[in-house]
Amino acid sequence: MTNSDFSQNILNWYGEHKREMPWRDSGDPYKIWISEIMLQQTRVDQAWPYFERFISLFPTVFDLAKADQQQVLKAWEGLGYYSRARNLHAASKMIAEEFDGKLPEDYEEIIKLKGIGPYTAAAITSIAFGKPNAVVDGNVIRVITRYFGIEEDVRSSRTVKQVQEHVNKLISRQHPAEFNQGLMEIGSLICKPAKPDCLNCPIQSGCIATKTAKTDSIPYKSPAKKKPHKHIGVGIIEREDGKVLIALRPENVMLGGLWEFPGGKQEEDETIQQTVERELKEELGVEVHAYKEFMKLKHVYSHFSITLHAYNCTLISGEPKPKSSQEIRWVSIEELEEYPFPKANKQLTEKLISEFSS
Questions:
Q1: Which backbone phi and psi does 23 adopt, to 5 degrees?
Q2: pTM of the complete model
């Protein structure tokens, strides 16, 4: 199969089978940008309702630029990888101020925006502006390694570079948006990780992995390192007026700009109650008694997992101060809904609100 045949088969298949999505065929670079950032770490079906809500709240780049970061993070709440939302917000200000509200069309300009790397720059410039910049994501890597019979580890940057070089040669110069989206769509719907639907694949006739019965072993991905597991203790301090204490995480740390119940990682040779009491002393400068476990839950992040232990705490002495956070606030249980929390803490707030209102 020639390169032109490969490209044409992708385009023909995409024309017949492309899925309807709220950002597709909009022609709006702003919506395409938002969708591409959301889809960096999120499946289409998960991103869809978030996208529609986000656009309803911030219909233009100027609306997003004018918004308070807390509003943006609240709209993003539940999607995870919150640096994406902070970078979107920062980039929107730059677009509004330096580019008159229009996303730059040039690859070298758009990649300078916060949160936009080579993949996203190629996706936006091809889909929104028709530039022949080839996109390589996990789906594309799977299709291309199978098609060309590439058996090297796909965790290797050398392998990814090899895939990129192939796609650079194959991309349709006349229809780059449709080609990129079609190749990704085939990876998502046809060339699946397990049990690929080879009989309905438009490029099956040239696929080495199909011919050599290696679709089970290609792509090869070396085993991931075992994720460390941490036990985290957090305290729910409640005042006589029923308000609870929450803290704002610093901007420059993981989950920065989100609110949480103060606490931290359990150290060796201490109980989880001791963890909560020690952490609150270090973070807030107060003595507390962690007297009852309110909730325990597990949560998995990209590089580690946690068990979160939340304890009801009595304030013994001291006035809480934000020693390791941006800010602390006493808020009513009902007001917790107004603040953006990480997913694990969000489960705590939901249980608190549920018990308070029942």
A1: -95, -15
A2: 0.84
